[in-house]
Amino acid sequence: MSAKASQRAMHTVEAKGFKIPVVGLGTWALRGRECVRLTEQAIRIGYRHIDTAQMYDNEREVGEGVRASGLRAEVMVTTKVQPTMLAPHDLERSVKESLARLSLDAIDLLLIHWPNPRVPLAETLGAMAKMKREGYARQIGVSNFTVALLDEANKISSEPLVCDQIECHPFLNQDKVISACRRHGMAVVAYSPIARGGAYGNKVLERIGKARGKTAAQVCLRWLIQQGIVVIPRTSRVERLKENFDIFDFELSDAEMREIRGLARGGGRIVDWTWSPSWD
Ligand SMILES: NC(=O)c1ccc[n+]([C@@H]2O[C@H](COP(=O)([O-])OP(=O)(O)OC[C@H]3O[C@@H](n4cnc5c(N)ncnc54)[C@H](OP(=O)(O)O)[C@@H]3O)[C@@H](O)[C@H]2O)c1
Who is most buried in 3, 88, 109, 206, counting CB within 10 A? Predict the structure, then answer.
């Protein structure tokens, strides 16, 4: 890795004493050899954070890519427990299975993927804390938690919750949940940070990028990290791995930050995460 790449790898967001690399690779929909290759390539480029989940059906390939990079000790790997596995016994079993698929020493960050209203949160958090105490996970956190759930979770968890991973990009106003995270000292991890490719072609983002030789996707990601938000863009193309990581050498002005903020609109959500009874 070049000196420049190693310098960029140092960028982290700290939450409750835990450092989260500010740019990670999202892996939803990456499968098979492509997933192994992209994971390994990303780490070679300088990524130090890889995001997977039980639901993505690629933990085995992510683990293989991390090991193939030869840089396991430097990389933070997140996986997430699926909502049908939140009862304590299921959670413990599924986390052990995740770790076996990943074939790593431990899961660096273990998240509850989506809340499940049919399982008491205290029971799930008790099992998550146990996974941490027993060394299966180094840190724990949540995903898709609302303000009310964040308040409840932080009150009852015996172990610190380091982040809430939520949909976050310029087309969606997430101010309330972001302030709740800040109030609880948690990091915000933005999923779908380029709006599933929706940043590409946006006139405002393109104009701002053009003035600096950057793309709309880079401006979009920069807007998030400049607010101290961690981003986990996904791509299946090596050249875009580089593009999405090359966001540390420019800064948006206050006026530009405000203008991008103005892109939020009602109905900007991409991922519908309302509870589905079919998950039972
Ligand atoms: N916790 C949750 O519930 C949850 C939900 C959704 C996602 N996630 C996580 O967040 C990660 C990222 O979110 P996402 O996959 O939904 O969406 P995303 O990262 O916002 O967008 C991915 C899409 O953008 C395209 N793309 C990537 N880089 C680009 C660039 N520089 N210019 C133009 N297009 C580009 C990709 O196409 P190409 O492959 O052709 O580049 C892909 O179609 C996921 O992979 C997953 O790890 C978590």
Answer: 109
How far, in Å, is the centroid of ligand 1 from the Cα of 74?
23
SS3 143: strand
Model pLDDT for residues 211-259, shown as the tens digit of each residue: 999 999 999 999 999 999 999 999 999 999 999 999 999 999 999 999 9
Burial (CB count within 10 angstroms: exposed 0-12, middle 13-18, buried 19+), residue 156: middle
Collapse the DSSP code of 89 into the 3-class scheme (helix H, G, I; strand E, B; otherwise coil) and give the result: helix
The residue behind tokens 């890889």 is: 50
Alpha helix segments (H runs only) across 46-105: 59-69, 88-102
Told to judge if 47 belongs to the known catalytic residues of this protein, a careful annotator would answer no
Cα(27) to ligand 1 centroid in Å equals 8
Structure pTM? 0.96
User: How crowded is residue 8: how many other Cβ atoms within 10 Å of its Cβ?
Assistant: 22
Tell me the sheet residues that pair with 14.
19
CA dist 185 and 86 (Å) reads 24
d(CA 129, CA 134) in angstroms, rounded, equals: 9
162-219 per-position pLDDT tens digit: 999 999 999 999 999 999 999 999 999 999 999 999 999 999 999 999 999 999 999 9
